[in-house]
Write a structure and sequence with these properties.
Blueprint (H helix, E strand, L loop, with lengths): L1 H37 L1 H6 L4 E17 L13 E11 L5 E5 L2 H6 L13 H17 L2 E6 L8 E2 L6 H37 L1
Parallel strand pairs: 3-5
Antiparallel strand pairs: 1-2, 1-4, 2-3, 4-5
Length: 200
Amino acid sequence: MLAKKLVTAQKRGETRALCLGLGMVTCSMMMYFFIGITIVPFYTKSVWTTETVCKVLKANIKDKVLCPNSEGSEDEDIFPYPCLQVWVNLTASGQEVMLYHTEDTLERNPKCSYVPGKSENCKEVKVRIETIANNFKKYQTFPCYYDPGGTQTNVILSRLYPPKGLLFLFLWPTLMFTGGCLIIVLVKISQYVSALSAWQ
């Protein structure tokens, strides 16, 4: 009687562990799919792949501009903000080019080096842009990214999805997938050992 209860409890534990392992594998595959269709295309589309050194030539704040209305955005999301234009000397080619914060900045407003978020208010935006301009004037040399193919003549300060960040995103689903597979393998080994012991 006791032996039957132990066997039943063991089978229940193995079933739960097997379900946990399969669930972890399924979740990791869904995470791989989500990252693959949302983030990887932005990474592969970016042409600013080579890092170099940029030297600030001028950092000016122009008159206030409106953020261009992108598809699907509402009118209340558009507000005037000071347009910061930063021109740098590209060490790799010696050209005078315009610097943008990220790839997204160029798409949102190619006239300005920095585009604030929609949730920020006007006073915060003004203070932030003035601080950024002062930092560029203070720190004249810094790393930046340019397009080695020459498709884009401008440069960006930082990539939205650098290689290290992409690897970090894939780390968690990989660990979950490995853990799930390990649980499944251990359950199968346990079942095999139990069957072998019962046969003997």
